[in-house]
Design brief:
The protein is of the alpha/beta class and 255 residues long. It has 2 domains: 218 residues, Alpha-Beta Barrel (TIM Barrel); 33 residues. It has 7 helices and 11 strands. It has a 9-stranded mixed sheet with strand order 10-1-2-3-6-7-9-8-11. A two-stranded antiparallel ribbon has the order 4-5. A hairpin with a 2-residue loop joins strand 8 and strand 9. Helix 1 runs parallel beside helix 5 and helix 3 crosses helix 4. It is globular.
């Protein structure tokens, strides 16, 4: 079987860049692709303030849900701080990893309540900066209806720790071999050429795009092969980040 793809859109909130989101939304709607939309319930991250507060944001979010787009809980406030690495060892900063369980429960509980107040029920957990730990999963299990995690580097949807994990391994459209691949995009910073590239990729691979909830229903128990693949992928990603950081330092010294 060839590769299947999911799309995830991060950092939806009332101060998002509306024009950039408009372009991404149009590209997906025209092609019938339903993404996961990661919504921040109570944003305080200045990096996500890309424009004035949009009074129509929550109505827009409800229209996403009504049309089959999957709402994700993207943390609570998106307030990132230095932290130990969590279950997905990508970044040493997080909103959740390392916090006491009760504090994590509070944030999950209040985040779910904030979305519920706007008529939204999140089905997927999307941790800001991939930062979450086993206590986050306990908080999700105890304080929310969410049983799907969008994260991890497996090549398929897996059952792990009482949750379905939909892997998230790509940050741009890219042709892959077999497996399930989530393309995570940040519309706030996505350029017009990048939106065009996304549209062309979908056009060329339309039958390979799946609905997130359909993909979740095909989850299999997490096994040794999944763990091995995640270790290799994480190591390759860490090496790529290190090489990129070294290149940026070298470029700075040459100026």
């Amino acid at each position: 079987m060839g590769a299947r793809y999911l799309v995830r859109l991060d950092d939806a909130c009332p101060t998002m860049d509306r024009s950039r989101w408009d372009a991404v939304e149009a590209a997906l709607r025209e092609r019938g692709v339903s993404p996961i939309v990661a919504v921040v319930p109570a944003n305080v991250d200045p990096d996500l303030v890309r424009g004035p507060v949009d009074g129509g944001f929550w109505e827009r979010a409800r229209s996403w849900a009504a049309s089959g787009w999957v709402i994700g809980l993207h943390g609570y406030s998106h307030a990132l701080r230095p932290s130990r690495r969590g279950l997905v060892p990508v970044n040493a900063y997080s909103e959740f990893a390392g916090l006491a369980e009760e504090e994590q429960r509070r944030r999950i509980r209040e985040g779910v309540a904030a979305l519920a107040a706007e008529g939204l029920e999140p089905a997927v957990w999307v941790a800001p900066a991939h930062g979450f730990d086993s206590l986050t999963l306990a908080a999700l299990a105890g304080e929310s209806p969410i049983r799907i995690v969008s994260d991890g580097f497996a090549r398929r949807a897996v059952l792990r720790g009482g949750f379905v994990w939909l892997p998230q391994q790509l940050w741009r459209p890219r042709k892959m071999g077999g497996g399930l691949w989530t393309i995570c995009l940040h519309p706030n910073t996505l350029s017009e050429p990048a939106v065009g590239k996304l549209a062309r990729f979908i056009d060329e691979n339309r039958e390979a795009f799946a609905h997130p909830l359909e993909a979740a229903r095909g989850a299999a128990p997490y096994g040794p092969a999944d763990a091995a693949h995640e270790r290799v992928f994480a190591a390759a990603l860490a090496l790529k980040k290190a090489v990129g950081a070294a290149a940026r330092v070298a470029k700075g010294k040459m100026r």
